[in-house]
């Protein structure tokens, strides 16, 4: 018998209205940038109109600005037509509706927002409005329905010209994508952080506004008595989070081909649902900080993903669509997946070895979304039909009878008695559905107005999510997706099976021949040896390169232990080594961790528990997944006497003494470095020379980007090592490689050129994207 808790996520609907935080009545200015675009036309103006109708008698006054790049004489009429089309809630009478719409139109105006002067003029208009209303200002809400590349500039202009008066709030709403990978998300987060506080940013994931998704924590809390005993590895067989779509991506190819299904759906929508299902229940559901912290704890507990934990596919017509919309020749091949299934695990005792499947795709047999917690069967058939056309929470009757929330109702009568849900008759389930179905954007807008951040994506959680997904995305870059015909013709071609911690298609079908791929045979590229700047170079596709580097480190470790009984490894921070950490943790089970000492090349001057800490990243991605004695781990002492990187605390001296005590002749066996865009290594930035630090092995330095203070090994310490590896991966590092290839001598402009091991060797590890662009 199949036992399951099933959450059906069907319609674009949302959570019940949030309780507004206590605040005094005042004037609220709403500014929608991209106000005549598709999203604004379909959802945003309707959502803000409903906010207005709900708040019209609250004591607040409003004014709405539709912003855009076009001049007012071109877009005012377009906006007027959009505003005329908004609809009143069903419980509002026709007469009342007509009055509200007339008021809303009178309070809305188009404003060109293109230059700095335009934003300054907007601020003057708002000040004038405040004087006319003779009210205190409550706050300003900016909704950025514009491409993400414009966020930083707009945020800067808001910060410099449009901040509200003292005591009023500022809320800036951002739409995805929030980056393309960890690095780009980090850059965007830093840019926005220069202008806005984290509590002023509301990153929207509309999935969090769907009624079923928004009710997950409430449902778990209300049914804690029943769920707590069975919500663990002893009872849960697996968790499935699925979003199936029947549509293709015609008309969106320019965007979609850069992102694919994992970035478009799994990294955000499905990951958010996963955290809601697995996070520790907060003591107070309305405490946004507690909810977001508990989500973050799940991210840090996720085991790293490897290529063997994912399968990808692409619907058959996609190549033709790409060639047509992007004006490519017939030889052009896109490897962008339109279908993906990924197997994740949470490294906590409660969920140990419980498979979590996240699955989504285009051109599938039905349009449906659901999350399912079940207890038997390890084969997933993608063509299992879900014949239900309303949002609902279903619980198998042989599990328990759930409590019904006040905003929900139990469905006991079904018009069609023959409805089946995943192979079982509907009568086998207790079924709940919202009393009133609501639109997601409308409800999320009300939560923004109320200042409720637990329905939005914080900076920490965003970066943690990208940190989890980016290594997998890098690993599948050169994989050929399985081609599927689309719709019902897919049959069992996309059915998958869980085998231990690996995921695979059930049917071994070869659907792509090399001649169909324009003669390309990317997977035939092998790791190659060569020379770069007169030193040894190893190059290959990212996955193979990381495999080679991990094997080389293990080989050096075994040789060092054979000679001296110990292996000293020093690793740098940043994003570059994350894939290596994952490789060592998941595939090198014979690595001699018991005899390995791990040192830090450089550290940011932040507490080691913070996300920005290099040690924090090393711990989350490697140390917590391997059996290494805790006394073999050597974090940099950046925090002493309850303060950070203060010279009088002698943290650098302390770390030097620790190196001298444990490391023979202060010579590490293996030092792993990355290279920044500006050529810096460790935290040694342009302008520095080896003689600047004398005989010191550890120093405090200043970074040009936040957090500015750093602690770092010096060239003196690095160049004593027996082997130094410089890892450069990603096409965004191609320009760095080009510049370094042209520099013949050591130069302060490129600190990496001063890396010259005195008695050891230097090896460059570069993937083809960095090498070839």
TrEMBL record:
<keyword id="KW-0560">Oxidoreductase</keyword>
<dbReference type="GO" id="GO:0006006">
    <property type="term" value="P:glucose metabolic process"/>
</dbReference>
<dbReference type="Pfam" id="PF02781">
    <property type="entry name" value="G6PD_C"/>
</dbReference>
<dbReference type="GO" id="GO:0005783">
    <property type="term" value="C:endoplasmic reticulum"/>
</dbReference>
<dbReference type="GO" id="GO:0004345">
    <property type="term" value="F:glucose-6-phosphate dehydrogenase activity"/>
</dbReference>
<keyword id="KW-0732">Signal</keyword>
<feature type="domain" description="Glucose-6-phosphate dehydrogenase NAD-binding">
    <location>
        <begin position="31"/>
        <end position="215"/>
    </location>
</feature>
<dbReference type="InterPro" id="IPR022675">
    <property type="entry name" value="G6P_DH_C"/>
</dbReference>
<feature type="domain" description="Glucosamine/galactosamine-6-phosphate isomerase">
    <location>
        <begin position="542"/>
        <end position="764"/>
    </location>
</feature>
<dbReference type="GO" id="GO:0017057">
    <property type="term" value="F:6-phosphogluconolactonase activity"/>
</dbReference>
<feature type="signal peptide">
    <location>
        <begin position="1"/>
        <end position="18"/>
    </location>
</feature>
<dbReference type="InterPro" id="IPR001282">
    <property type="entry name" value="G6P_DH"/>
</dbReference>
<dbReference type="InterPro" id="IPR005900">
    <property type="entry name" value="6-phosphogluconolactonase_DevB"/>
</dbReference>
<dbReference type="InterPro" id="IPR022674">
    <property type="entry name" value="G6P_DH_NAD-bd"/>
</dbReference>
<dbReference type="InterPro" id="IPR019796">
    <property type="entry name" value="G6P_DH_AS"/>
</dbReference>
<keyword id="KW-0119">Carbohydrate metabolism</keyword>
<feature type="domain" description="Glucose-6-phosphate dehydrogenase C-terminal">
    <location>
        <begin position="218"/>
        <end position="495"/>
    </location>
</feature>
<dbReference type="GO" id="GO:0050661">
    <property type="term" value="F:NADP binding"/>
</dbReference>
<comment type="pathway">
    <text>Carbohydrate degradation; pentose phosphate pathway.</text>
</comment>
<dbReference type="Pfam" id="PF00479">
    <property type="entry name" value="G6PD_N"/>
</dbReference>
<dbReference type="InterPro" id="IPR036291">
    <property type="entry name" value="NAD(P)-bd_dom_sf"/>
</dbReference>
<dbReference type="InterPro" id="IPR037171">
    <property type="entry name" value="NagB/RpiA_transferase-like"/>
</dbReference>
<keyword id="KW-0521">NADP</keyword>
<protein>
    <submittedName>
        <fullName>Hexose-6-phosphate dehydrogenase (glucose 1-dehydrogenase)</fullName>
    </submittedName>
</protein>
<dbReference type="Pfam" id="PF01182">
    <property type="entry name" value="Glucosamine_iso"/>
</dbReference>
<dbReference type="GO" id="GO:0009051">
    <property type="term" value="P:pentose-phosphate shunt, oxidative branch"/>
</dbReference>
<keyword id="KW-0313">Glucose metabolism</keyword>
<dbReference type="InterPro" id="IPR006148">
    <property type="entry name" value="Glc/Gal-6P_isomerase"/>
</dbReference>
């Amino acid at each position: 018998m199949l036992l399951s808790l099933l959450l059906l996520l069907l319609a674009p609907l949302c959570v019940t209205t949030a309780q507004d935080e206590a605040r005094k009545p005042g004037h609220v200015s709403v500014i929608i940038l991209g106000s005549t675009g598709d999203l604004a036309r379909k959802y945003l103006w309707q959502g803000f109109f409903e906010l207005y109708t709900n708040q019209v008698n609250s004591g607040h006054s409003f004014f709405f600005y539709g912003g855009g790049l076009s001049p007012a004489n071109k877009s005012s009429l377009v906006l007027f037509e959009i505003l005329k089309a908004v609809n009143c809630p069903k419980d509002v009478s026709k007469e009342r509706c007509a009055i509200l719409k007339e008021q809303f139109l009178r309070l809305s105006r188009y404003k060109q927002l293109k230059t700095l002067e335009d934003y300054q003029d907007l601020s003057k208009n708002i000040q004038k409005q405040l004087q006319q209303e003779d009210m205190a200002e409550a706050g300003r809400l900016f909704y950025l329905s514009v491409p993400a590349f414009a966020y930083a500039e707009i945020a800067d202009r808001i910060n410099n010209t449009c901040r509200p008066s003292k005591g009023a709030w500022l809320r800036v709403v951002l739409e995805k994508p929030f980056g393309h990978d960890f690095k780009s998300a980090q850059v965007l987060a830093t840019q926005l952080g220069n202008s806005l506080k984290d509590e002023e940013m509301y990153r929207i994931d509309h999935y969090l506004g769907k009624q079923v998704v928004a009710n997950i924590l409430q449902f778990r809390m209300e049914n804690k008595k029943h769920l707590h005993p069975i919500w663990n590895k002893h009872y849960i067989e697996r968790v499935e989070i699925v979003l199936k779509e029947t549509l293709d991506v015609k008309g969106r190819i320019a965007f979609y081909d850069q992102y694919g299904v994992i970035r478009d759906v799994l990294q955000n929508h499905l990951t958010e649902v996963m955290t809601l299902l697995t996070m520790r229940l907060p003591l107070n559901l309305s405490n946004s900080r507690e909810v977001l912290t508990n989500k973050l704890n799940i991210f840090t507990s996720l085991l790293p993903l490897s290529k063997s934990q994912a399968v990808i596919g692409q619907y058959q017509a996609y190549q033709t669509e790409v060639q047509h919309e992007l004006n490519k020749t017939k030889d052009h091949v896109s490897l962008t997946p339109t279908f993906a299934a990924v197997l994740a695990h949470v490294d906590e005792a409660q969920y140990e070895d419980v498979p979590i499947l996240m699955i989504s795709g285009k051109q599938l047999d039905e349009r449906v979304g659901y999350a399912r917690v079940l207890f038997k069967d390890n084969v997933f058939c993608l063509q299992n039909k879900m014949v239900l056309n309303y949002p609902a929470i279903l619980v198998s009757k042989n599990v328990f009878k759930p409590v019904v929330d006040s905003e929900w109702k139990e469905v006991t009568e079904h018009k069609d008695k023959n409805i089946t849900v995943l192979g079982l008759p509907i009568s086998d389930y207790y079924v709940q559905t919202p009393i009133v179905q609501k639109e997601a954007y409308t409800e999320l807008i009300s939560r923004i107005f109320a200042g409720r951040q637990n329905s939005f994506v914080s900076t920490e959680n965003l970066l943690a999510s990208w940190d989890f997904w980016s290594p997998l995305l890098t690993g599948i870059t050169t994989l050929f997706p399985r081609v599927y015909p689309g719709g019902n013709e897919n049959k069992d071609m996309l059915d998958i099976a869980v085998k231990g911690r690996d995921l695979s298609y059930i049917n071994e079908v070869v659907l792509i021949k090399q001649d169909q791929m324009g003669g390309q045979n990317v997977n035939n590229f092998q790791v190659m040896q060569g020379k770069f700047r007169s030193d040894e170079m190893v190059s290959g596709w990212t996955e193979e390169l990381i495999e080679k580097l991990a094997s080389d480190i293990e080989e050096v470790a075994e040789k060092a232990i054979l000679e001296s009984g110990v292996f000293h490894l020093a690793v740098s921070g940043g994003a570059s080594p994350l894939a290596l950490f994952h490789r060592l943790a998941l595939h090198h089970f014979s690595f001699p961790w018991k005899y390995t000492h791990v040192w830090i090349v450089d550290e940011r001057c932040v507490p080691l528990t913070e996300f920005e800490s290099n040690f924090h990243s090393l711990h989350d991605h490697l140390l917590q997944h391997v059996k290494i004695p805790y006394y073999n781990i050597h974090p940099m002492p950046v925090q002493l006497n309850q303060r950070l990187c203060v010279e009088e605390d002698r943290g650098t001296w302390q770390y030097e003494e620790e190196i001298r005590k444990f490391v023979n002749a202060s010579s590490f066996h293996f030092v792993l470095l990355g290279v920044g865009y500006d050529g810096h290594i460790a935290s040694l930035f342009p302008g520095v020379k080896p003689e600047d630090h004398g005989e010191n092995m550890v120093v405090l330095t200043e970074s040009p980007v936040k957090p500015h203070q750093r602690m770092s090994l010096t060239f003196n310490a690095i160049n004593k090592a027996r082997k130094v590896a410089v890892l450069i991966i990603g096409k965004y590092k191609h320009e760095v490689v080009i510049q370094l290839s042209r520099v013949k001598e050591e130069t302060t402009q490129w600190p990496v050129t001063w890396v010259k091991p005195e008695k050891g060797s230097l090896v460059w590890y570069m993937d083809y994207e960095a090498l070839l662009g």
